[in-house]
């Protein structure tokens, strides 16, 4: 998983790559440096973080949908952490707001399922393709109701970022 | 000795008094407003009675009701703590009339010291040095004449004032008219009395106060000084004892002045004479606080004397039992007042539930607190949640211990002033011990938390944010079953759905 | 001075050492076994490294691994705390070989004091009074001859022993044979060495120990005595300083003896000479503990000296910097060791999660703890969860403060020895301060919690049980929906079902 | 509600009558003395109990089905608290272990519902009568499977403690 972590005050944004190694142990990459971080389970108490031997106690308070106020050794940081895929999809959603909707792969992955054929009528939110990426199955839904105008992938195929998956044409276009 | 005492207060000072009672084998009666049923001072008490709705005016300030509760519970005495009714002479009188001992000085003594002008006159007569200025209630013409005589800068003050209200600093001649006008209207609005007096403004003043203890038999001693110059908007933030660079001679001189002041009004109990000390070592009587102070604990730390117990003993008619020669200064103590305030946001109050509370411990650390994990800080009262006091053999040891203790102190759920204290405790001017009451304005931007700048902590925070986000998403997924839904803002809900592979979420 | 120190320990003593490091600006490196990842000493450390599986032999006792971690982390010194490797001369030697400073005396000094017979010989040669008896490894025949000479009662002891193992009290002639046999076999089984020696048994002995501090420059001082006579099965339960009824002359004499003992072995660091004191005021050297003691905090309370910091300074090659004339006794201190033990059930260990933890606070109270709310007490290590230390100007004030603090102390989730301490602190013999090491056996039934007998608390408990049961039933009903099901044991489930009327459960 | 509270050590049993006056406030009667007790909500923390002004902090630990270990001011009490009706029913259940099962009212109450008629076949655990007592509706079930041999109450009727409600005869008896 990749998170975009931004500072609410300075507006600086950092990319943090996260991989769970084992329960409570994470491999994290920040600015090209990869470290292992051991984060003690903390329920209602305080986090204990060990990064390459360095131990930090951290008080973490959730702020809104993506915000975390983090206090470490007297220093308070106001951060927003958002899953990069969510972010990409948000951008994609904005880019494809009207007309025929082209849906592209937002990251490299393998097509594990294709639910429809060209010409099928689909409803907004209906699953069209399932893409496996980063150990997750991502079911890609039709962004609008309409007809599958184009279907560019087959089951078992591997796609790169930006590859076209399918195009949905809105009903008006289909009838013109 | 009393068998039962009612504490007409709440929060840490109520807990403090209850502790003294318990150590003396006295039963402690608490009172609580409707929002305080679950407060720590109630939990530590032997008896507890409701005293009204949350607003202090309808609960902790209801004199008749409180005395009535004391009588019904069979309490022979009332300890007022600080704030609320602690310096209300009428309350002391009421207690006396109703046959309940008020633990503090007599009502007329409080009134005498409560009126700044009367207090100045009394002190001047007793030979205690006061800031050059007037003790009269002045007309504007008289005021102008006095300013001419004393010379600028001067402070125009409300006779009935306190806490910085009705005070006006005048540095230039053209500010005089406006200063008088504003001070009078503020005084009228705040205290219903527009009487003014004028004092020479002491430059680079330090706030040094002397703790005194007196019994009803004419015995009166002082417990040396406290330095309270670290103030934000006239509110003390950090105090230490002994004061910085106070010579034994100056200490003895100020101590004598404070004892003279207390004796002049036939003082009984614990009290504090506040002085301004200028850069040349001149000191001036400021006012006398006729109650136990928030910062009494640092004096206890360097002398070993339990001031609250001494107050109770004296009120019960016992002799003080400590002579001036019995007390000496051992080591150095610092107090940091931990407030439920947001130091990043103009120190606005930050009420709420204390979700995690882990006070520091170990050698040389004292915590006086009115809260516990799970307690709520309400917006109705003073936002102080705890006093942190450290003692060391030397000033530097007590400073190092305070830093260490602040680092250990964890309060989650509300914002606190802990990060601000940490910055003060690392400031070179503070470490040198050469500061005056202008410290926070001049060296801490008036009370602004420096933004954390990079470093190791920043890296860790960035990565931890990612971990926290990942964990939250995972936890949400677990709660929702095996399927991960996006949040309301996420496009996943609109046209995406993902499932995690592998064991984690099944 | 060191920049970084590894603490080869866990629990409260690891936290104690970390605090000293932080106050000195030294980084603290913790080690943790697999069950201790979330322990307090890890949370307070600057660095933390895993050291192995839960059993101590595979983690906290792994000498090579610990030294390896220290070197890898760049720690210049290791503080061993108490227990584990603290009195292991081989560990000290290993540290020295590997170029890491061991904070404590040299390995050969530990070995010399660790062997009881050698220690006795050394002390006798230094002119320190020892309990009449042998210092030889005796044959049975020699033993019988010595017993004849010293006279009964005598104590037969294992040369390699400690902690009460391999010790045998012989009061009557007919017990001699059996005593020798048993002591030898226990010694063989426990220590792999059946060497024995014999000591006069001191009747009504009190356990008085002297704290010493020594540097590498021949400076050696003592910090007065601690009385540790409140023991349960040879384990200290409550300690106080100064000792009861110790005259200044006796104190000076014992202090001189302890300093002589330390100088005789060229001691460096903090150490403790344990003595037996009989009713006539005769004292006898018992053994020397070559480490910081659990109860060092009460000496810190009455002298103001930070013993752990002194150990670190001396180990770093600094001079002690405190002369004998610089230290004096101020007030009185008591320590209660709070164990995760069930005082109602033979003090069996009571591991588990600490669901609620509210330590006491306020004036004169120090808590040194290795836990926090939410922490787990595991069965793998020493069951001590906290040390509670109170200080007062007088013994009675420190006793009253200890009672008050014990009353405030809440630990929920595990059983603790707090109720037992409260009973000791109310016992008239304890209050008189006239007790010996037989106190718990003779006056507390060997360590039995008196059953609560009636009174107000009983009434409240009965009613609260009903309230708690009612609330639980109500909560269960709420969770199950609007219908109340009986519990598994209840006949309601078999053939009954009830619904509550009214708003409560809808 | 009435609870029987017994000491697990001394075996002494006390009757405690409990009535909730308002949130957290209870009227309790013990040995003829009625007091009001204010019990602060305590979640995962410590109880604060105020009884006629006297304040007690209490640590309450549940022990098994009905046990409560209660620590008040250094005194530890090991108590069992059982709802008296549950207790009465347990006794009743024991008393009616074989043969035709007579079910009696275990306390005074009003019959608000009768589900069956005489001769009806019932299964063990099937509801027969609903009795309102102490603000609770108590649905009285058939203690065994069989046939309703007798039905002594009608809807709306008020019954006293010990009044016969109904009798269930086991199948063997019915066929003999």
Summed up:
Chain A is mainly beta and 176 residues long. Chain A has helices at 84-95, 171-175, and strands at residues 2-7, 13-22, 25-30, 33-39, 47-51, 54-63, 67-72, 75-83, 101-104, 109-114, 121-122, 127-133, 136-141, 146-151, 158-159, 164-169. Chain A folds into 2 domains: 2-90, Glycoprotein, Type 4 Pilin (2-Layer Sandwich), CATH 3.30.700.30; 101-169, Beta Barrel (OB fold (Dihydrolipoamide Acetyltransferase, E2P)), CATH 2.40.50.
Could you explain how this protein is built, in words?
The complex is a heterotetramer, with two copies of chain A (176 residues) and two copies of chain B (506 residues). Chain A is mainly β. Chain A has two domains: 2-90, Glycoprotein, Type 4 Pilin, CATH 3.30.700; 101-169, RNA polymerase II/Efflux pump adaptor protein, barrel-sandwich hybrid domain (OB fold (Dihydrolipoamide Acetyltransferase, E2P), Beta Barrel). Helix content of chain A is 10%, strand content 56%. In chain A, strands 1-2-3-4-5-6-7-8 form an eight-stranded antiparallel barrel. A four-stranded antiparallel sheet of chain A has the order 9-16-14-11. Chain A starts with a strand and ends with a helix. The model of chain A has no long low-confidence stretch (mean pLDDT 82). By secondary structure, chain B is of the alpha+beta class. Chain B has four domains: 4-103, Rossmann fold (3-Layer(aba) Sandwich); 132-200, Dna Ligase, domain 1 (2-Layer Sandwich); 206-447, ATP-grasp fold, B domain (D-amino Acid Aminotransferase, Chain A, domain 1); 454-500. Helix content of chain B is 35%, strand content 24%. In chain B, the strands form six sheets. Chain B has an eight-stranded antiparallel sheet with strand order 13-12-9-10-11-14-21-19, with helices on both faces. The interface between A and B is large, with 62 and 52 residues. Strand 23 (496-500) of chain C pairs antiparallel with strand 13 of chain D.
């Amino acid at each position: 998983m990749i998170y975009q972590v931004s500072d609410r005050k300075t507006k600086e944004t950092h990319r943090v790559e996260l991989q769970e190694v084992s329960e409570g142990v994470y491999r994290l990459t920040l600015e090209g440096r990869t470290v292992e971080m051991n984060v003690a389970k903390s329920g209602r108490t305080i986090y204990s973080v060990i990064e390459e031997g360095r131990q930090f106690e951290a008080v973490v308070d959730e702020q809104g949908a993506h915000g975390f106020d983090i206090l470490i050794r007297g220093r308070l940081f106001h951060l927003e952490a958002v899953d990069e895929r969510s972010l990409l999809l948000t951008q994609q959603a904005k880019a494809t707001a009207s007309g025929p909707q082209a849906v592209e792969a937002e990251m490299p992955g393998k097509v594990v399922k294709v639910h429809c054929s060209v010409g099928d009528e689909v409803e907004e939110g209906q699953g069209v393709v399932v893409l496996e990426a980063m150990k997750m199955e991502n079911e890609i839904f039709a962004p609008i109701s309409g007809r599958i105008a184009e279907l560019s992938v087959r089951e078992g195929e591997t796609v790169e970022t930006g590859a076209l998956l399918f195009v949905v044409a809105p009903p008006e276009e289909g009838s013109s | 000795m009393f068998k039962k005492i009612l504490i007409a207060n709440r929060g840490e000072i109520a807990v403090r008094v209850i502790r003294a009672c318990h150590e003396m084998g006295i039963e402690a009666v608490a009172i609580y407003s409707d929002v305080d049923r679950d407060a720590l001072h109630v939990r530590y008490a032997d008896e507890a009675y409701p005293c009204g709705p949350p607003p202090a005016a309808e609960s902790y300030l209801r004199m008749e009701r409180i005395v009535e509760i004391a009588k019904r519970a069979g309490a022979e005495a009332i300890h007022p703590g600080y704030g609320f009714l602690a310096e209300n002479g009428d309350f002391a009188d009421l207690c006396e009339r109703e046959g309940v001992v008020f633990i503090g000085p007599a009502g007329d003594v409080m009134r005498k010291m409560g009126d700044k002008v009367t207090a100045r006159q009394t002190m001047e007569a007793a030979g205690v040095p006061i800031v050059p200025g007037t003790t009269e209630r002045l007309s504007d013409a008289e005021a102008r004449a006095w300013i001419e005589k004393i010379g600028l800068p001067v402070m125009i003050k409300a006779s009935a004032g306190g806490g910085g209200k009705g005070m006006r600093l005048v540095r230039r001649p053209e500010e005089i008219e406006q200063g008088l006008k504003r001070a009078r209207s503020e005084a009228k609005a705040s205290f219903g009395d527009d009487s003014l007096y004028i004092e020479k403004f002491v430059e680079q003043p330090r706030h040094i106060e002397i703790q005194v203890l007196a019994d009803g038999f004419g015995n009166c001693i002082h417990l040396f000084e406290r330095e309270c110059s670290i103030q934000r908007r006239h509110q003390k933030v950090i105090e230490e004892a002994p004061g910085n660079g106070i010579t034994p001679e100056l200490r003895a001189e100020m101590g004598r002045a404070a004892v003279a002041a207390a004796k002049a009004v036939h003082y009984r109990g614990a009290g504090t004479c506040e002085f301004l000390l200028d850069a040349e070592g001149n000191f001036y009587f400021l006012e006398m606080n006729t109650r136990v102070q928030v910062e009494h604990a640092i004096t206890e730390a360097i002398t070993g004397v339990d001031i609250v117990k001494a107050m109770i003993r004296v009120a019960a008619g016992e002799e003080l039992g400590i002579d001036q020669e019995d007390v000496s200064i051992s080591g150095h103590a610092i107090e940091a007042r931990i407030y439920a305030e947001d130091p990043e946001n103009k120190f606005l109050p930050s009420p709420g539930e204390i979700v995690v509370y882990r006070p520091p411990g170990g050698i040389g650390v004292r915590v006086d607190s009115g809260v516990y994990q799970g307690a709520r800080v309400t917006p109705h009262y003073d936002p102080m949640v705890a006093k942190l006091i450290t003692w060391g053999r030397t000033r530097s040891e007590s400073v190092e211990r305070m830093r260490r203790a602040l680092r250990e102190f964890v309060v989650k759920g509300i914002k606190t002033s802990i990060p601000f204290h940490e910055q003060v405790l690392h400031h070179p001017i503070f470490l040198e011990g050469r500061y005056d009451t202008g410290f926070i304005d001049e060296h801490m931007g008036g009370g602004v938390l420096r933004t954390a700048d990079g470093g190791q902590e920043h890296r860790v925070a960035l990565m931890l944010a990612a971990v926290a986000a990942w964990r939250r998403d995972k936890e949400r997924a677990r709660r929702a079953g095996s399927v991960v839904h996006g949040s309301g803002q996420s496009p996943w809900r609109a046209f995406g759905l993902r499932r995690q592979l592998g064991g984690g979420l099944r």
